[in-house]
Amino acid sequence: VECRNLNVRIFGIDFSNKQYRAKIDGLRFREKSGFEVTNMGGEVVASDDNLLITNTFIQTKQSKVYLDTLEYNWVPEHDYWRNFTTRMQQRYVFTDSRVNFDDLAYFNGKLLGMHNTVFGSGVVFNTINNLEGRDLEVYLGDKSVLHGSFASHGLPAFFETDFNIDFTDTKVSPPELEAIYMPWLESHYVKIPEILHKYDIFTFDGNFQGKIEDFAIKARTTTPGMVGSVLFNCVMDNIGDIRYDGWFGLGQVQFGFLTGQSFLGRGSFFGKFDGVLGDSISRFNLSSDIRRLQLFDREIRNLRLTLGTEDDHLYLLSSVKNDSLQADILLVYVMGD
Predict the structure, then answer these.
(1) Do 137 and 121 form a contact (C-beta atoms < 8 A)?
(2) Beta-ladder partners of 145
(3) Which helix (H) or strand (E) holds 84?
């Protein structure tokens, strides 16, 4: 670490009771990497085995972090500072903070290009390589918010780290999710199917488990008009293609709202899917069962739907057999023709 243009005001210094106390205000500096703190302050209490900083704020050109508590605990003469990521016990209590990923990229170059800003609060603790968090509230925009907790193993090697994240009462807006730059994806952005943009927000609970490029998400949505559970597995293979699969069970679906067709009503939708996304391949397969569907004033049951896409070809097979209707449909379509 090499700091330049360092300025700081230190006052209220006290060395009594085997502790060092001081107040810091107006701290600013520029690190040789380009990372710049424009204003920082707090109240410091240090002893042989503890460093406690309270009422802290850290401000850069794009971020502003408020820390009620920043604390480090160690055993004297056991090289805790030299082995900071694996031995130093830490605790951070954030309140109403704003963090821009451009600042985080100075500490992890793989986040370069992720210009998004998040707002949040919560408690983060433990050693860096076993970092945990609780009481977290993170806003991704005006409408998208995540509540939850996490445990991890492997930091600061971000892409090799195992995460276990529980999220509750989480709300996601499709346009805000699509606006997040994800440098580990080939396309850098997630594309939400257009039909799902009919929802202003999705509300769900669930769990993320795995690495950022090899994970499973289990979620239960309580979104009005789309209630049920989803499992999504995703892994990036050794040539950079994304392979995924999963299943869904939606006991309540408002098909009329989703499709814009007034003659369709509520129903239920169950199935499984898999696919591949890459530079030279795009493939998706869906095997599903619409167990009930309100059509005009009647209810159709057991409508089977099989859908497949490969590059620019779409294959659709549908069948329904019940007391009121029997039919089979096969469609092969070249998209873009």
Answers:
(1) yes
(2) 139, 171
(3) helix 84-87
Q: Which helix (H) or strand (E) is 85 found in, with range?
A: helix 84-87
Q: Percent helix, strand, coil in the chain (nearest 5)? A: 10, 60, 30
- Segment holding 134, helix H or strand E: strand 132-139
Q: Which amino acid is at 292?
A: R
From first to last of its 337 residues, the chain has per-residue pLDDT tens of 567 788 999 999 999 988 999 999 999 998 888 889 999 999 999 999 999 999 999 999 999 999 999 999 999 988 998 899 999 999 999 999 999 988 888 777 777 777 889 999 999 999 999 999 999 999 998 999 999 999 999 998 888 999 999 999 999 999 998 888 777 666 677 777 777 888 899 999 999 999 988 999 999 999 988 999 999 999 988 887 889 999 999 999 998 888 888 888 999 999 999 998 777 778 889 999 999 989 888 888 888 888 888 767 777 777 776 666 566 666 555 655 5
| Chain centre to alpha carbon of residue 187 | 17
Distance CA 270, CA 252 (A): 10
Bridge partner list, 269: 250
